[in-house]
Specification:
Largest sheet: 7 strands, mixed
Radius of gyration: 23 Å
Number of strands: 16
Shape: globular
CATH topology of the largest domain: Spore Coat Polysaccharide Biosynthesis Protein SpsA, Chain A
Distance between the termini: 36 Å
Structural class: alpha/beta
CATH class of the largest domain: Alpha Beta
Number of domains: 3
Oligomer: single chain
Number of helices: 18
CATH architecture of the largest domain: Alpha-Beta Complex
Strand content: 5-15%
Strand order of the largest sheet: 3-2-1-4-8-6-9
């Protein structure tokens, strides 16, 4: 029995497949099998796999008679697999050579059901470069050094865990004992599977590695089923998950986690749909009946939700699609709300007559942070942003400027955007300015 079964659905993947296969075969953990499911490709996908197969017996290929999509192929791959753990990878991505070894070690040492690791969407021209995403010590202590059940954490924390299948290693018994399978949808076919696995896992852990382990290629090919981002698929995935949790007599225990994830996933689905007319129709469906369907899964649990998330669902019903209110809902806004007292105390530490605070970042997070500060009467002197298009404008009543324009007048910079702390520190250099990252402070990563 191999330690890991890598399951890879493939449809017309010839363009990048050789690069991907090489990055798999260069893994430092060698005890794996690669299950390739050819989904009725019409290009050279099969021939490329066979060329590699002649040199490496760990590669197995199975072909669908007609095209079914990634969900069907992954489900078939699980039936063919023999490994103790499952990894689901795509045929156009690149993997750090220690990805499987590090994940397997963590799973074994910590008896984990799921190990998650860093992934990054990158363009093809830098996909072979190495990148880091540095976590705070608080984040590592919370998620990386001991296993946890997400149901034990605050409901909003589940939003931090991506619902794609490829940045995780799954213990086979978790999947089989709970009869989990990918849902046959035109898009979002992995939402049900990953969401249920995360909720059902009693022992999840994040890999304590700053370096990125998986590089997902950003590109668009019209032949990809996944480009048909119908938001109705998100609705169908979470309705199935809710009904499944109810049938397992689990819903009451995880209802807050469920509804928080539903709220933000519906928001993401609306933003991801490039067909605005379809998105508008979906929004109308939510207004007329969709939200009520989610409430009907367990009306008592829904009515007992905290005010913040109940107001969010109410917005779907009461506000118009064209208002775009859902664009302003994100994880930073949620965590600021849930940790308001801590954030206010943080600002109070710097409330001196001669201390001036700047927010770094004029994007979505910057707007959210400035609105929080306005609501709580926290003074912000200026917004700093590197974009020349934004410099000279205003955001929430604050001037947007370049660092060199305001550096002599500020003592504190609070970063609103994620994953730029080291870059900002380098920009600040030896100036006597303290730099704080609000996302790290809130343990968002």
């Amino acid at each position: 029995m191999p330690k890991i079964s890598i399951i890879m659905p493939l449809y017309n993947a010839s363009k990048y497949l050789e690069e991907t296969l090489r990055s798999i075969l260069q893994q430092t953990l060698e005890d794996f099998e690669l299950i390739c499911i050819n989904d009725a490709s019409t290009d050279d996908t099969v021939q490329i796999i066979r060329n590699f197969q002649t040199k490496d017996g760990r590669i197995h290929i199975f072909s669908n008679a007609e095209r079914h999509g990634a969900a069907y192929s992954r489900n078939r791959g699980m039936k063919e697999a023999k490994g103790e753990y499952f990894a689901f990878l795509d045929g156009d991505d690149i993997f750090d050579e220690e990805m499987l070894e590090k994940a397997y070690q963590a799973a074994e040492e910590k008896c984990a059901d799921i190990v998650t690791y860093q992934y990054l969407h990158v363009s093809s021209d830098v996909i072979h470069h190495k990148f880091d995403r540095v976590h705070s010590e608080e984040y590592k202590a919370r998620y990386c050094r001991q296993t946890f059940s997400l149901s034990e954490y605050a409901p909003g924390e589940l939003i931090q865990f991506p619902l794609g299948p490829c940045d995780k290693l799954y213990r086979r018994s978790l999947i089989e004992d709970n009869h989990l399978a990918f849902q046959n949808l035109t898009s979002g076919n992995d939402l049900y599977f990953v969401f249920m696995a995360l909720l059902l896992s009693k022992r999840t852990v994040m890999l304590e590695e700053d370096r990125v382990m998986l590089y997902a290629r950003d590109h668009f090919r019209q032949g990809r089923i996944s480009l048909n981002r119908d938001p109705m698929c998100t609705y169908q995935a979470f309705m199935k998950a809710g009904q499944d949790l109810r049938d397992r007599n689990m819903f009451a225990c995880v209802s807050h986690h469920f509804y928080y994830r539903v709220f933000y996933s519906l928001r993401d689905a609306l933003l991801a749909d490039k067909d605005r007319e379809r998105a508008k129709r979906f929004y109308g469906f939510l207004q007329e009946e969709g939200i009520e369907h989610f409430r009907a899964i367990d009306r008592q649990c829904f009515d007992e939700l905290d005010e913040y998330i109940r107001n969010g669902f109410r917005h779907y019903i009461e506000k118009d699609f064209t208002s775009g209110w859902y664009r302003e809902e994100n994880i930073l806004k949620l965590f600021l709300h849930q940790n308001a007292e801590r954030v206010i105390a943080l600002f109070e530490r710097y409330r001196f007559p001669d201390q001036k605070i700047a927010v770094w970042g004029a994007g979505e997070n910057g707007k959210v942070l400035l609105e929080f500060c306005r609501q709580h009467h926290l003074d912000i002197s200026v917004v700093i942003d590197k974009s020349r298009d934004k410099q000279g404008t205003e955001l929430a009543g604050c001037k947007v400027a370049a660092l060199h324009e305001v550096a002599d007048d500020i003592q504190i910079i609070i970063i609103s955007a994620r994953f730029i702390y080291d870059d900002v520190v380098r920009e600040v250099g030896n100036r006597e300015i303290e730099v704080l990252d609000i996302n790290r402070f809130l343990c968002i990563d």
